[in-house]
């Protein structure tokens, strides 16, 4: 019996040692796994941060491309007033341009602006375009009473290329009354619609008046509009935020063009705002 007891004790000790070693090995493996998981989580966080920083840099770069294009067009208006001898108009143009340029520079590093800031810049821009065209068109801005312009934040300088297109490709190509309408409408709690409507010649006639590439047959598209569309796509894909454009050709009862309506629909996304800090 004593021999059996010793054998059983020895076996038990061996099993205990194996168990303790197994436990130690298991704990070490769990520790390595936990460390690896923390490392993966850290790398995922770093990767996400780098992606957001890269997206922010791309957006800032695209926005910075709009500003020179926009400034160049304004300078053309000043030059036109000077060479035609319209000194008073040139002075007024320079004064308005200086105020607008100050606002553009002030917000140059911000990808998101309040709706009020965006509307203020667009107001200065429209006043300059009226001066440039000898007040050839009128414009009306309407804001939904449900909207708080200081509380809503949107991609900055995104509407201006659509206004430019409406003025120079729609309104200035027609005779008679020229009207431009900008409407800000709250569709849902987190969705804002901006409508840009003109009573111009319509897209088809405007395309015929634009320069056409004889090799490809593709109508010319302004650089500002190309940048704008690229910015919208970057916002949409990077931040999973809804931002789309719908274009409607306005026709009369005889199916003749009487203007164009552009709808830019934004999702007011607080997470997107937090993810895009000022540069």
Mind telling me which CATH architecture this is?
Answer: 2-Layer Sandwich
Query: Which sequence of strands runs across the widest sheet?
Result: 2-4-5-7-6
Distance between the termini: 84 Å
Classify the fold: give the CATH topology.
Heat Shock Protein 90
Question: What is the domain total for the residues?
Answer: 1
Question: What's the CATH class label?
Answer: Alpha Beta
Could you provide a short overview of the structure?
By secondary structure, this protein is an alpha+beta fold. It contains seven helices and seven strands; from the N terminus they run H-H-E-H-E-E-H-E-E-H-H-E-E-H. It has helices spanning 2-83, 87-106, 115-132, 160-171, 203-209, 223-239, 270-275, and strands at residues 112-114, 138-143, 153-155, 179-188, 191-198, 243-251, 257-267.
Description:
With 279 residues, the protein is of the alpha+beta class. It has one domain (2-275): Histidine kinase-like ATPase, C-terminal domain (Heat Shock Protein 90, 2-Layer Sandwich), CATH 3.30.565. The protein is built from 7 helices and 7 strands. It has a 5-stranded mixed β-sheet, with helices on one face. A hairpin with a 2-residue loop joins strand 4 and strand 5. The termini are far apart. Mean pLDDT is 75; it is low at 212-220 and 275-279.
Q: Helices and strands in order, then pairings?
A:
Layout: H1 2-83, H2 87-106, E1 112-114, H3 115-132, E2 138-143, E3 153-155, H4 160-171, E4 179-188, E5 191-198, H5 203-209, H6 223-239, E6 243-251, E7 257-267, H7 270-275
Parallel strand pairs: 2-4
Antiparallel strand pairs: 1-3, 4-5, 5-7, 6-7
Helix pairs in contact: 1-2, 1-3, 1-6, 2-3
């Amino acid at each position: 019996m004593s021999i059996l007891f010793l054998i059983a004790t020895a076996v038990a000790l061996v099993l205990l040692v194996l168990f303790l070693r197994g436990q130690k090995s298991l704990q070490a493996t769990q520790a390595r796994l936990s460390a690896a998981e923390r490392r993966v989580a850290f790398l995922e966080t770093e990767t996400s941060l780098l992606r957001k920083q890269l997206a922010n840099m791309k957006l800032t770069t695209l926005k910075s491309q709009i500003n020179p294009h926009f400034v160049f067009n304004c300078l053309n208006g000043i030059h036109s007033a000077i060479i035609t001898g319209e000194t008073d108009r040139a002075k007024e143009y320079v004064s308005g341009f200086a105020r607008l340029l100050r606002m553009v520079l002030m917000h140059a590093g911000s990808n998101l602006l309040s709706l009020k800031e965006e509307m203020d810049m667009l107001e200065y821009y429209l006043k300059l375009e009226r001066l440039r065209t000898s007040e050839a068109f009128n414009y009306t801005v309407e804001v939904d009473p449900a909207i708080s312009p200081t509380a809503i934040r949107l991609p900055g300088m995104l509407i201006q290329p659509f206004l430019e297109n409406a003025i120079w490709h729609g309104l200035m190509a027609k005779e008679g009354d020229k009207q431009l309408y900008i409407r800000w409408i709250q569709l849902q709690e987190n969705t804002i619609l901006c409508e840009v409507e003109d009573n111009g010649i319509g897209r088809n006639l405007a395309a015929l008046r634009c320069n056409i590439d004889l090799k490809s047959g593709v109508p010319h598209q302004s650089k500002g509009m190309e940048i704008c569309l690229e910015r919208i796509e970057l916002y949409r894909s990077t931040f999973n935020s809804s931002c789309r454009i719908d274009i409607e050709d306005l026709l009369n009862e005889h199916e003749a063009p009487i203007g164009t309506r552009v709808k830019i629909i934004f999702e007011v996304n607080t997470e997107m705002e937090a993810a895009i800090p000022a540069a």
